[in-house]
Target: Leucine-rich repeat-containing N-terminal plant-type domain-containing protein
Amino acid sequence: MALISFTLLSLILVSSLSIPNLAHCKTLKRDVKALNEIKASLGWRVVYAWVGDDPCGDGDLPAWSGVTCSTVGDYRVVTELEVYAVSIVGPFPTAVTSLLDLTRLDLHNNKLTGPIPPQIGRLKRLKILNLRWNKLQDAIPPEIGELKSLTHLYLSFNNFKGEIPKELANLPNLRYLYLHENRLTGRIPPELGTLQNLRHLDAGNNHLVGTIRELIRIEGCFPALRNLYLNNNYFTGGIPAQLANLTSLEILYLSYNKMSGVIPSSIAHIPKLTYLYLDHNQFSGRIPEPFYKHPFLKEMYIEGNAFRPGVNPIGFHKVLEVSDADFLV
Model:
């Protein structure tokens, strides 16, 4: 019995030594300083939830709301900051860029104003940057192109202006790029087509110009792109047959532009094309027969164009249902 008790005691001691005591880990002073600066700049709306001196918690008090920490060696570091939908007013908190271990920054649905500071490029480990639904303005800083780990970039529903920086093409892991509902001008950099993992590109509701042909001019471009939203801009020209090379495409949204010409039948051979929005442009001619036989195409919006008589949109939303017998008239 005594031998068993000694063995059990030894196991407990070994186990207690092998498991780090997280309660006694200190939070890196750099992160504590940055979070307190952020707390001061954000004002009363977060103060009620940010209690105590240590944003990662001090044993008696929990971590600050929206703050996630991880243990690195003998210290804790802030890895996620999520403060959204609390009507924060004021400029983007520059102190955020001192949280060098951040992997997620989510400040969406607030009332942040002013530019994103160029220091944003310091956050080398950032994977998700969500700033949508704010009042941010000025140009999108090219320094975002230094965030090599970024997979999700949400900048939609702001007041950004100027051109889309071509430096975004330096983000090898980027999968989702949301830029819609801003005041962006110029052309979409064709360099974005070199992003091997980009699945979703939404640049709708801006003031962009150019042609589809210019956008896809790089050979082998957009190999993983599933959804392409270019609606409500000022794109001109036609739909090039080469667009069929984007074989992963499922949604193509070109509504409300100034595009023209006939619809090439090659587009109907995009294997998984499901939704095609062509309405409110200046397209002409007939709808090619292969669209009628497409195995996945569900809806094709065509109203507000100059298609030949007999190609009439139907339904409540004036959608041409590809199963309708009038499709080939």
